[in-house]
Amino acid sequence: ERLEAILARRKEIFGAYRAGLSGVTGISFQPVEPWAEPAPWMFNVVVDRGAYGRSAQDLASRLAEDGIETRPLFEPIHLQPPYVDSARRRGGRFPITEALSQSGLSLPTFNQLTAGAIDHVTERIRKHRA
After folding, report:
1. Above 90 in pLDDT, residue 42?
2. pTM for this structure?
3. What are the phi and psi torsion angles at 7 (to 5°)?
4. CB contact at 8 A, 106 and 44
5. Greater confidence, 26 or 86?
6. What pLDDT does residue 88 have?
7. What distance in Å separates the CA atoms of residue 105 and residue 76, rounded to the nearest whole number?
8. What is the spatial distance between Cα 88 and Cα 124, in angstroms, rounded to a whole number?
9. What distance in Å separates the CA atoms of residue 62 and residue 15, rounded to the nearest whole number?
């Protein structure tokens, strides 16, 4: 019943994060093809360790010290215990997936997130750049 309102709010949050983090060297966003409509559920960034000066894990730790909860992007399926043997037997190597899992970070994304909170998150990300 509230899907449209929830999605509209998430789009606002995504826009605020993009605006607040655009231009931060070493932080990039999930690409969106011109023909696609993104599913605005979790706002993810990719941290380029060389360009940002810190790993995604280091940034997550520093944000946690600031009271900001983040999550790793995902654990690749082929590295999860039920699938690792099968993937290994089939020669499954997925370097892009593995790199994204190491460099991706999900930022706080919930509908009650205020503009001030988003500004705080983006300011801390800017501050922690080495």
Report:
1. yes
2. 0.89
3. -65, -40
4. yes
5. 26
6. 87
7. 14
8. 40
9. 24
**DSSP string covering 49-69, please?**
HHHHSS-HHHHHHHHHHTT--
Residue 118's pLDDT is what? Answer: 98
- The whole-number pLDDT of residue 70 equals 98
Tokens coding 34: 């011109």
22, burial (CB in 10 Å: exposed 0-12, middle 13-18, buried 19+): exposed
Answer yes or no: are the C-beta atoms of 43 and 17 closer than 8 Å.
yes
Cα of 68 vs its chain's centroid, Å: 13
pLDDT at position 106, please?
97
Contact 32/5 with Cβ under 8 angstroms? no
Q: How many CA atoms lie within 13 A of 7 on its CB side?
A: 7
- Which 8-state DSSP code applies to residue 27? E
